[in-house]
Structure formats: structure tokens, C-alpha cells
Amino acid sequence: MSQDARVDDQIYFDELVTTATASLVGDEVLLANVAGERTDFIRLNNGDVRQAGTIDQRTLTVDLIEGRRHVGGSIRLAGVRAIDDARLTSLLVQLRDQRRLVADDPFLLYNTEPTSTERIERGTIPEPAAALADIRSASGGRDLVGIYASGDTFRGFANSLGQRNWFESSTFNLDWCFYLRADKAAKNLYAGFDWNDGAFAAKVEWSAQQLAALAREPISLSPGDYRTYLAPRAMQELVQLLSWYGAFGLRAHETRQTPLLKMLVDDTRLSPMLSISEDTANGVAANFQSAGFLRPDTVALIVDGAYANTLVSPRSAQEYGVPTNGAANGEYPLSMSIAPGALPTDGVNEALGSGLFVGNLWYTNFSDQAACRTTGMTRFATFWMDEGEIVAPVNVLRFDDTAYHLLGDRLEGLTDTAEVLLDAASYGERSTISARLPGALVGAMRFVL
Amino acid sequence: MTDLLIESTVLEDRLRSVLPADVDYASARLVDERTEHLSVRRNELEPVFNEFDTGVMISIWNRGGLGYAATTDLSRTGLTAAVEQARSWAGITAGAMVTTAAPPSHASGAYASPVEVTWDAMPLHDRLELLHQQSRLLGIDDRIVDWGASLVRREVDQLLITASRGGDGGRIEQRFRFVYPSLRATANEATNTQTRTFGGHAYCGQGGAEVLGRFGFGDAASQIAEQALELLTAPNCPTGVMDALLAPDQMILQIHESIGHPLELDRILGDERNYAGTSFVKPEMFGSYQYGSELLNVTFDPTVPGQLASYGFDDDGTPAERQHLIENGILVRGLGGAVSQERSGLPGVANSRAQNWNRPPIDRMANLNVEPGESTVDELISSIEHGVYLHTNNSWSIDDSRNKFQFGCEYGQLIENGEIVRAVRNPGYRGISSTFWRSLSGVANRDSFTVMGTPNCGKGELNQEIGTGHASPACKFSDIEVFGGES
Fold it and tell me: Is there a contact between A71 and B49 if contact means CB atoms under 8 Å apart?
């Protein structure tokens, strides 16, 4: 897409909201958000293309407020003013009509102190044909399977009070595996703003080396407790689960649904080595949310193993009588950062000694949420190590253990570097979630199947 | 916002006219969707929300290439640009495709969800009052710390127009009407938090307001709240090898994860290996593999009236019909649409489906049902010396080959000497799909057969979330590894 066209998305949104604002009745307030993308995608299997195409979409979401009564709605934008003006006008008529039937919302809170911002990060992304050629060439006849998605994504906020916020970036994300056989594969990710052939080649080389290690005869381990190193991507699966179920959100705390309930009730702590923050300044998500509040650069969530703050959405702020810190309604981190530790990243194998090197975990869930007992599978490159050397790949294992052990009393160290992990998810739209996570050395992790 | 686009002859003519006649196969799939979200939490109405979503996916197969272009711009200019975009992709991918097989069908036809009572027969005011009533019935005790009642109504109109160089063309019109009710009560005491719900999210289906009555929505809240409280004082589920009786609202998860996903042909063909995973099922197993005991009969049945994933045609235009996947325990057929069948040479079904206009179709479950047996539930309970009756899924995890699984439930009942003796909390069990179904030792009859759905199955790259239907009676499994929690 041309640069002019990208600028148009911002102008288009601004003009659409300006026109809608002029149509407001009485003391009505309009909050508007837009989320859009133009995505080129290439899905690959065995180094060839399974599906490929382009998706062009923009969703406008509005909240029409009068006093404390309000109703919301969304429309897909056609990108044609006459059509979109008509659709938005029709939506506002419906919302106005429904609003007569709803009571005052005691938890309504929106930003009334307009602060406009703009953040635009444009990258250098290859044309689709060139990207496909690069990827197929890199596969070198190997069994490459995965997804390449690239293009512009944008988020905007505007209200009838004159606030305007815009976030836009051009990114690419190649999330792929080299498969050796059956379920033995080297997983990798190449994502960013500027495609660099050298950086991609280095990723390919790393995967090729993992493939070589995977070629050894795999072993099956019996259930039991094993000394384990969790690579950053494995850590991501663990902490994502906690995040999704409210470990860092005020609402889940107040309603006692947080998986870290024991930390609230029993003064249980995680390891003093563990500090977790919402690090918006170093993430790739927008720094504003749907009611117009800006996110601070950072919010400390866990400090030295103890609770510090929670993420507070505007509704929770109003419900529980505390200030919002610009969290979205889900109250989970969008840019989680775990502070690195003292374990030298290049000395992980030696520190592990004999035990499991887990590259990836998969399909985590709770065995007992209130006790923060989690379960999940090893996946992709998981190796049995002896005296710091790879012995053999390990067939998939199920773990069942609590975060109070894995990130608590059995945590022996965090690596001294953190890996930046851009989320490749694309449910409904391409994700702007990211994380900066170190690897973790755990004295014993319980495997059950 | 009430004019139905699917009834616009102007738009249909435009879609038909922009599709090229000089390619091997082309299609335009219009999706027009309207959704209403109503929710009351802790006796306060959450913001009412209305979604309107319209777009078109253009697909072009030509000379060994395939391209998609999804657009919201339904003007002639917009659609023409999308066609050119898809054509360009077909050029880029020509010679580099996993498969060049296009959907063979140019079928024409129509499907509409059966609706007995239109949603709007219950005005918005009444819908909100119903939710407030249910909320008040849930929040009955100070120990219930969070609760909510919600209704989602979703209308989806789809129009699939196909064309090809040979002059063939098809037209499929499908109008879906969905209702998703839910109830939830969370109770807490110290470090013990327990949640009971209205069948997880499984009590949903196609239809109008009658869907609420189908699942007893208006009569369930009190029991949900009482059971959440009961779980606070219930002991943890015992740990050990014992019989497990799975209620229908747990069976749907068991079917979904350890029969549905492993049988998807695109997983078996490797498309999903980077994300959702592969399958322990291999092509040579079809026709002979003993998937379960002789009591196991599983159908793919998109013809069940009112089930969540009923339809007349899949999104490649293949007419849908009922098929046995597993018959008397033997695996006979996989879950793959026309393209996967062509690639694999295996028998499949009409299940090539897309989440929305902005995603291409892939192999998905539709309605996947365990057929009823002959026992009553009481007879199954009576046959258990030591075991647990598990209700309502709340945790699911399975390996990337869909083999080693561990599932948890909201509510358990301990069975001793053929009788239910008490409630137990945090019940869970684990097993291995390839052998688990062979331990199926009892299938209840049609009295407990419940038609439900899973509204949010995730799969695919780009990711897609879609509704699948599951129906099952209660089923008994012998010698299962069961466990409880710690809180």
C-alpha cells in the first residue's frame, strides 16, 4: 500500500468522527475507535504455498453517551465515505433508540481531558512475491510449514471532545517450523519492521542446527520431577495463561478469580528473582485504550516476587474506586516484560547440567486455578541434556505443576537477557501483543504423562 | 440497519459480473453479520453492544495458482480491485502450490436456520429484564463474589457465487440465526474459588428465542448458584484409577478435542503443524483402526435441526450430508472438504468452512455427535462401584498430535457402590486419545442426549475462530486416571 493511502486511513477516521460529532444531539458524547489492517498472507506447508492473499479491513467502534446512559456498536468500514457515513448514521440512530431502554451505568468512565497523540512506525517490507521467493529459497528443500503475514496495522481513538490518538505500524511476521518427522520440528519466528536478509539467514541457520539435534533417536521419559530449563517461548506459554485468567487484573483480584489468589489471601510469594511489568513504552501495542485513557510507559505488576500493582480498566476503576492505568477491559498485559536475571544466557546448558531443555510449551490450562496449578505439553524442540550436552530429543510430556513452584521456590535463575517475542496471533485481526521474557532454570518440574 | 444485503439483487448482480470467466474457478463469498450482546454482571447492565460486519472474500484458482482477496468495499470499483488482487496472487503462487485442486462444485441451493420464535418477538426491554431476573437469582449469598447472565444473538447471511472458464456457475444462499445464552456464579471462601456455569458455553444453537427454552435458561440460575456454594465445602475429587461418567456437557469437549481435531484431514496432511498441530491418526488407519469400543458411533451431521453448526453447504459449496466417521468403534471417514479429499485420497465430508468473509475456508468440525446407546443414566451410575460423575468442562489441554490430554470440570459427584454420595470439587482426568475411547464401557440412551455446541474453536493460520456443534448422551469410561485439586 502506498504511503499516501496509509495517511488516508488517519484522515478518513478523523473526518468520519468529525462528521458524526456534528450530528450529535444535546449533550451527547461520542467515543470512537478504529482498528484496521491491510495484510498480505502466505500460508506454507512443505515449503509450498497452501493459501495466499490479501485482507483489507477497518472496524469502527463507537460508544454513544448521554449523561451516564450509553450503548455501543461497531461497523465494518467500506472505505467509501458515502457508504460509511450512512452506516454510521444508521448505527447512531439505533444506539440512540436503544439508549432509552437502559439505566444509568454506574461504572461508565471515559477520558474527559483530551490528550492527542500520534505514533507511526513504518518499516521496510518486501513485496509479497519477493517475500515468498526469499522464504522458499531459505527452506532449501526442507519441510517448512508456517505463516507469513505482513502489512500495515493501525488503531485510532477519537471523541467528540476533540481528542485524537493514532497508532500505526508496518510489520512482518514469519512464524514457521522446519519439520524433521512426525512431531519433531524446530520452531522459529522472524518478525519486525524492516526485513533484513542477513537476520533472516541467521534465524534459518539456528533452525537448521536444531534440526540436526532433533535427528537423534528420541527418548521417552517416565512421569516424574525433572530439572528443567524453560526457554523464553516456553515461559511465554506459562505467563500468557496467567495473564488471560486475570493474574494481573484488578477485577479478577477483587472477585477472587485470579489464579494468584494465594498471593492475595495467604501472603504467598513468587521467587524474589521475579519482577513483571506492563512495559508499554517498549511494546508494539497502542499506548491508548478505547475510552481515551493513555497508558503509562510502565506499570510494575510483580516486584521481587510480591504483588505491586494491577492493571485497572476504566470500568474497574469506577467499580472499585481506584484510578485507571489505561488498561483495556480484559486487564491483561499487552507488552509484558519480565526483568532478566543473573544466569548467563550462553551458559544455560552448563547451568542445567542434566535435565530437560524445553524450547516450547503448548496448550497450557489450569488443573486447579485457585491454586495456580497449571498443565500443558512440551512441544517442538525439547531435549534431554547431560552435563550440558544434548543427549536426545524427548517425546512430548505433560506437566502439571504450580506457578508457585515454577516461578517460586524452585526457580533457580533467570537468564541475563530477555527475548522480544512478537505475537503471531491473528484472531479477527493481527495482534499487537508482545513480550520481553528471559529463560528460566527450574530445580524440579513435575511431569505426569 | 435492518435491510438485508443478501436480498439486494443489485449487489448480487455486481458480484456475479465482477467474477472473471477466464479463470479455472472463481468465487465471491459475501458475509453479512449482525450481532447483539446483552449482559448483566452483579445486577448491573453492562454496555449493550451491536455489531454489524459485512465483507466479501474473492477466491481465484487459475493455471496452478490460488489467490484470495478480502474486502469491505462492495462497490463495483472495490470488488473489481479485489478480483484483480486475487488474480495477482494466483499469478504469484502459480507453480508453488501445495495443491492446485479447486473446489469441484458449482452447486446452487439455500439453507435457513429453523426459527420458531423470532428474536424480536421478545423486545429488548424484555430481554434485559430476563437477564436482570437471572442475575438476581445468581447473586444469592455474600460468598458469591461474581456472577453474570448474558445473551448473544447473531444473524449471519451468506451468499456464495461461483464461476469458471467452462461457464459453470453456482449460487448458494444460507441464512443462519444463532443464540448463545450464558449464566455464571463464582463463589469464594479464603483460597477456594469455585465457578458454576450454564453448561460452560455449550448451551447454544440455531433458532430464535425458543433456544432459551430448549436449554431451560429461565430455570437454571438457582441451581448454578447453589452448586457454586456447595463446591466451597465439598472435598476435593479423589485421585486414582476409577470409572468416569462424563455428562453431555463434558462429553462435547472430549469429542471435540480427541475425535474431532485428530480426524481433520488438513492436520493429517500437515497444514496445521506450525500452529494447531498434527494428528496421531495416519491415512492408513481409515477403514480399519479400532478407535473406540464397539459402543462408539460418531456422526458428522450438519442436518440436525437447531444444532450450532448445521448448514446446507460448506464454504466451498459442497452439499452437506450426514456421514458416519466412526462406526461400532471402527474409524471409517475423516473430516476434510473436497480439496483435502482430493489431496489425500481419503473419504471426507463437506466441512470446508471459514470464520468470516476475511478468512479462507479450511477443514473444520461441524456437528460431530456421539450417537445414543441403550442404557439409562441411572443404569450407568448403578454399574459403577467407585467413580466420579463429571459435569461441565472448565479446562482443556491436549498435545499437538491430539493424543495425551488432560481435562477438568466444574462439578463432580462421587459414586460409591452404584450411588451418588456427594459433590466433589476440582475434578479432572487425563488419558491418551488413541486408547481412551476403547475404555468406553457405557453409552446412555436418548434421554440424556443433549444437542449443544462449542462457539469458539480456534485453528488455522491466519487464525480462525468458529462454532462447532456437538451432541452426546452421558458416557461411562472404565479405569481412568482421575484427580482432584489442591485448593
Answer: yes
